[in-house]
Amino acid sequence: MDMIDLRHLAYLVAVADEGTITRAAERLGIQQPPLTRQLRALEERVGVPLIHRLPRGVELTEAGKVLAEEGRVLTGRLDRAIEAARRTARGELGRLAAGFTSSSGFHPFVPAVIRAFREEWPEVALGLEEWGTVELADLVRHEHLDIAFVRTPSSVAPELALESVLDEPMVLAVPAGHRLAADPPEAGIRLADLAEETFVMYRRSAGPGLYDTVIAACVAAGFSPHVGQETPRTLSTLSLVAAGFGISVVPASMRRMDAGNVVYVPIAAPGINAPLQIVYRRGDRSRAVQHFRGVVRRMARTAAL
């Protein structure tokens, strides 16, 4: 049997609804003779009578009623599929896979953006993953993620775009009872005063930007820091600080993490900052990604005021 055109089913549905071929033709915007020919062609394809011709109007056979009802379902699904495709193209439907680093997730800006995006585009399914900066950039590059909040990668692939969002200061995390926690200067601790300390650092392979920033700042202050431990996550860094393994320099937003036995001390080095950025694929035409970037930019402007 030849494939039935959905258009033919729509013709049959119109006849079922209107009761006459004349009114069905008017509804469909075609002439009556072509509609009659199309209905006969449909009967030939199905192989059974679908319509009884009456003195006034027409009546569907039992087979015609069944086919018309199924046709109504199919054409309705098609209409919904077309509308879903249009809404997806507008970024109103679909899915967005986003990522963030553990440290950026503690900055209030990130959950605020996520909340605002979900409120503005509630029918876009938003998936979230937490990884290090390097892993996030790689996941975006290979299309496992669409966009991610990252710190500063040492470099990004040419097919990726990196967009600055904001900078936040970094603070010193020391164990409770440490000499630097007792009575820190109001202006903050000088990095030069940390020359004899043991540092706990976020592993460079996961977060090269923050790692290099801290090392460069210490070298500029006249010493090369002694790194006693490296960790795969910022939260692990704070856990080791709390256990007395050393001190660490972390983004100020990490103060929101109640690590226990950790005291946060300002640093008298205004140039030591933790940038927050977004990374996405150049030329990505996804409207959902564009909407997310729009929310980020709008809220970044508001945060800067």
**E-strand count:** 11
Question: How much beta, percentage-wise?
Answer: 15-25%
Summarize model confidence as the mean pLDDT.
Answer: 86
Query: Number of helical segments?
Result: 10
CATH topology of the largest domain: D-Maltodextrin-Binding Protein, domain 2
Low-confidence stretches: none
- Helix- and strand-based class? alpha/beta
The major β-sheet equals: 7 strands, mixed
Number of domains: 3
Describe this structure as you would to a colleague.
- The chain has 10 helices and 11 strands.
- Helix 1 crosses helix 2.
- The chain folds into 3 domains: 6-89, Orthogonal Bundle (Arc Repressor Mutant, subunit A), CATH 1.10.10.10; 94-165 and 275-304, Periplasmic binding protein-like II (D-Maltodextrin-Binding Protein, domain 2); 168-274, 3-Layer(aba) Sandwich (D-Maltodextrin-Binding Protein, domain 2).
- The chain has 305 residues and is an alpha/beta fold.
- The protein has helices at 6-18, 21-28, 32-46, 62-89, 109-120, 133-141, 179-182, 208-220, 234-242, 287-304, and strands at 51-53, 58-60, 94-100, 124-130, 147-150, 160-175, 198-202, 226-231, 248-251, 262-266, 273-281.
- The mean pLDDT is 86.
- The chain is rod-shaped and about 105 Å long.
- Helix 5 links the parallel strand 3 and strand 4.
- Strands 3, 4, 5, 6, 9, 10 and 11 form a 7-stranded mixed sheet that branches.
